[in-house]
Amino acid sequence: MKVRTNLKLLRDSAGLSLRELQAETGILPSELSKMERGKLVPTDEEIIKLCAALNCTVDMLYPDPQLRKVLAE
To answer: Sign of the C-alpha dihedral, residues 8, 10, 15, 18?
Structure first.
């Protein structure tokens, strides 16, 4: 099961590249890419950093909060 995320949409809307988002969050671009593709589930700390950098809420990032706890395939 893939974890549905709006990370790429929010990042694109903010006009940020993966490297720019890394500068804001400290999360490696390779990990951010995996998160966007549903291959990696961010930790709670990473979710907080992403929301702060993208000026969004957790609900905007992950529309279905239960999926945050599911490991992506």
So the answer is: negative
Q: How far is CA 67 from the centre of its chain?
A: 13
pLDDT in tens, 21-61: 999 999 999 999 999 988 888 888 999 999 999 999 888 88
- Nearest Cα neighbor of 60 from 2, 1, 4, 20 is 4
pLDDT digits (tens, 9 = 90+) for 13-31: 999 999 999 999 999 999 9
- The fold of the 7-69 domain, in CATH, is 434 Repressor (Amino-terminal Domain) (1.10.260)
CB atoms inside a 10 Å sphere around CB 21: 22
pLDDT at 70 over 90: no
Domain residue ranges of the chain, discontinuous segments joined by +: 7-69
